[in-house]
């Protein structure tokens, strides 16, 4: 289940956008073999708020597009489907029957700016950022070149399967 909270007023969050994001979440998680009920929180913010969160949590005093806060721990270079496929989770990771994967914070203001910068639709940019963030929640990273290649490949495969192109 995706839980959303809109804490900004610069970009309209309507039912269509929420439905698109829900579909992207479901397809991305299925592609990554998350076959159990899940819980993700998605907070919509503006550039000022994401800058504050980025500064407080990462020590980086600038606005960014999306931040991810995974709940599960992953060994280096391992992702959900490689670590937790057969796992029975204890109550520390569960909310009722749902596996708590973590939180995403998305600056819709920055997504709009980037959609213009990259010359594609706002919805495409939001979908890309959601997939990117979900992959972070599932253990992917892009700090090293090989990790980055692996993550970018998965992003493009998932977006391609959804017919979301640039």
TrEMBL record:
Signal peptide: none
Coiled coil, from the record: none
Domain of life: Bacteria
Pfam families named among the record's database cross-references: YbeY
PROSITE patterns tied to this protein: UPF0054 (PS01306)
Keyword vocabulary terms for this entry: Cytoplasm, Endonuclease, Hydrolase, Metal-binding, Nuclease, Ribosome biogenesis, rRNA processing, Zinc
Cell location: Cytoplasm
Residues that hold Zn(2+) according to the record: 132, 136, 142
Enzyme Commission no: 3.1.-.-
Stored InterPro entries: MetalPrtase_cat_dom_sf_prd, YbeY, YbeY_CS
Membrane spanning residue stretches: none
First-level EC class: hydrolase
Cofactor: how and how many bound: Binds 1 zinc ion.
Family: Belongs to the endoribonuclease YbeY family.
Chain's role: Single strand-specific metallo-endoribonuclease involved in late-stage 70S ribosome quality control and in maturation of the 3' terminus of the 16S rRNA.
PANTHER family in alphabetical order: ENDORIBONUCLEASE YBEY, CHLOROPLASTIC (PTHR46986)
NCBIfam families membership: rRNA maturation RNase YbeY
Name the record gives this protein: Endoribonuclease YbeY
Organism: Clostridium saudiense
Gene that encodes the chain: ybeY
């Amino acid at each position: 289940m995706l839980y959303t909270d809109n804490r900004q007023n610069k970009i309209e969050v309507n039912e269509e956008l929420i439905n698109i994001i829900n579909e992207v979440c479901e397809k991305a998680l299925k592609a990554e073999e998350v076959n159990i009920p899940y819980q993700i929180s998605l907070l919509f913010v503006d550039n000022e708020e994401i800058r504050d969160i980025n500064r407080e949590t990462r020590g980086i005093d600038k606005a960014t597009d999306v931040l991810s806060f995974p709940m599960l721990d992953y060994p280096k270079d391992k992702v959900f489907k490689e670590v937790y496929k057969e796992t029975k989770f204890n109550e520390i990771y569960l909310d009722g029957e749902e596996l708590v994967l973590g939180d995403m914070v998305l600056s819709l203001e920055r997504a709009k700016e980037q959609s213009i910068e990259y010359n594609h639709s706002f919805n495409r940019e939001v979908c890309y950022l959601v997939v990117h963030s979900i992959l972070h929640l599932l253990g992917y990273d892009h700090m090293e070149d090989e990790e980055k290649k692996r993550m970018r490949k998965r992003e493009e495969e998932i977006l391609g399967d959804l017919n979301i192109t640039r």
